[in-house]
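Instructor's aside before we start: the two examples that follow are unrelated to each other. I chose them only because their records fit on one page, so don't look for a connection. First example below.
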Amino acid sequence: MRYHIDTIPVWDAVKQKGECPLCALRRRNELIDVERFLGASVMEPDTRIQVNDIGFCARHQVLLYEQKNRLGHALMMHTHLKETIRKLQPILDEAASAGEKSAKTPALKRMLGKSEGKEDLQEAARKVRAMSQSCILCDTIEENTRRYAYTMLHLYKNDPAFRREFAASRGVCLPDMAMLLEMAEEALSGDTLRDFLKDLQTTMRQSMDKLEKDIEGFTLKFDYRNADKPWGDSRGSLERTINKLQGWCLGEEPNPK
């Protein structure tokens, strides 16, 4: 898959020297998109059609709610609810039909887990779960993050200055490392691919080793005998460790104020 190259945001994110530039970009886009979905896009037909069809996950419902635009939020939820009701009716019919089949299944077959309606009920459950977990904001943010990851690899390939900047960075979080590894062979080849993977290996090892020392120092500060020892870089190490392992989710915003 080819992506539009937008280098400036990636450069800016890497220069921040945070735990993961892609997390910083993801969070920036998330805040922009939350505001956008409750702004003029509320009344855009294409956007409303997508929102009606896909909806939002629980996390993004909370972020939308915190914007305190109750009318815009309610307008989107009203039409999304109507579309959900329309989709749900045939699933409910399937589940009811499966119940009829199960009721007619002999007790012994039911005890053996061979109810004739079992597979139909499982399929109905799968459909409902998919409906409840889909999120247009998650989809949009993930696509933008993949575009930025591709841009990062493009810059590494074509810009020696960026290559040096990346080699001096703290690397990325583990989920975004997985994404870069998945995309690396498509975007890079030969010596460039080898060099990128070596730089990624070095930055990740150095970053993780420092985090390990920092969080150990954090735990030691809880011993009264270390009360007078300086915090050094251990303050905030719990949040930084979690964000490194899971992607940004705790502590200070990954973008400067």
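Example two begins here.
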Amino acid sequence: MIKVVKFGGSSLASAEQFKKVAAIIKAEPERRYVVPSAPGKRSKTDTKVTDMLYSCYDLAARGEDITTYFGEIETRYNSIIAELGLDLSLESEFNTIKNAFIHKAGRDYAASRGEYLNGIILAKYLGFDFIDAAEVIFFNENSQFDSERTNAVLSAELKKHEYAVIPGFYGSMPNDTIKTFSRGGSDITGSIVARAVNCDLYENWTDVDGFLMTDPRIVDDPRVISEITYKELRELSYMGAGVLHEDAIFPVRFAGIPINIRNTNNPEAHGTLILPTSEKYDTGNVITGVVGKKGFSVITIEKDMMNAEVGFGRRVLEVLENNEICFEHLPSGIDNMSIIINTHELEGRRDRLINGICRAVNPETIDIDEGIALIAVVGRAMVKAKGTAARVFKAISGAGINIRMIDQGSSEISIIVGVDEADFEEALRAIYQEFVY
């Protein structure tokens, strides 16, 4: 059995955290390939190393002296090395990085050095081989991740190493400059490594016990989801759930590899297991999670007999396409059509969009309502449970909240409701309480 393990910034913020990570890795010899992040915050008032590197690089780009500030970064790493009792010097790496900053090597290069240096330290501490991600993870000329080349090269390289550390967050461009992932960071690297070795399990270690059923900032102490499918995770991540960015899912989803979200500070906790598919249901929980976010607008178009007008919907969507606007949902009736979009998409385009739709389909009325929040109730068990939608609507109605929009896909894995932004938090709490308490 082979496991790939990724540790986030909070898991590697200090020497004390390094010791926890090493204990976790050494506890199971199957944990053979490790992907580290840069050191995160040691306290709420602390600064992440990646942010320190960005700030230091910005000073250098303005031609200012970076000696003092760069010294703080050196001190951060050297303190970890000293407290771990390692016979290791990063002086050569520090000099190279400092010179590169002065000669303006780029912000991606600057940010990537956090993972690079942490990877060297962790490899030394574990006694693992170190593989520079720039040599095995590639982007193409258009700055897009080159998945197939990466998979081939990385797979071949990892076969040469029984145990290895591969720093997360970055790879290289065809001209050998450093390029970072724009979203998902080290989570994506961990997923890429997991696919390359075709591992049995990808463990993503963070600072929470797993994927929570809802937002803890809105609902006190929400339950941890014990098991979830990729489809459910994508629905929840898209609607704002944290822990794992949806971009980090695809490499392992492509290979059908399970992901286990675990807590470095509570390694005994089972965490959340993310599976390609599952027929297993928690009979006590019809829903897997309930999440949402604000910042949406509804474009409502009304016209008698629009359902009999061939090409009506296509012409409306062409107007959105011509204005480079993506839609989120399309709930419709016989004589009306609603389009849900992100409100920021309207900036500088509102009049052009309305005029374009009027020319395209000549509607009787067209309105745009802003201030809409969407809530997604997600669960693979909903298709087996009668009355789930009724319970959702009952919970919202019982809280005295008006539903502005309803949308449910044919797969029945999710129900989307729209409410006024002012009612968002209360509606989410009401739904959670209906199904969990």
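The chain has a mean pLDDT of 92.
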